[in-house]
Amino acid sequence: MNDVEQIIKDYYDKKKIQDKLKYEIDILKKNNSNLEEYIRVMNSRKDFIVARIEENNEKILDKQLKVNDISEENSNIEFILNFFLDDTEKQIIELRYKKNKQYQAMVDIVNMSKSTISRRVNKIIEKLEDYIYSCEQV
User: Whose CB among 5, 29, 117, 123 lies 3.0–4.6 Å from 1's, allowing a Cys bridge?
Assistant: First the structure.
């Protein structure tokens, strides 16, 4: 795997982490909402519940900071992938590096031969290499 392939793989790995963090944030927010409703209904053990809500809010803040960091780290690559690749190229790259599909597994999905997919991946990597390195120099 060359540098550009590793950059793309890292991009998708970070996106998975980002999606997981967003999901966890949503769960914590729903949990807070449920706890707040419980306080209104029961009005007992209020101190414990308020402490739990504050703990959840700290977790939410920590996770949101991580999400923001990942967004910032991935912004150049995301721009390049979205702006310079057509839909088919994006699909091929996502299958290869996000979903870790082998070329043979991609044949039916993209309706191309294994050798065509291999050539397209190489062309896309070369294309991305030019854009990635030109963005890093700016």
Answer: 5
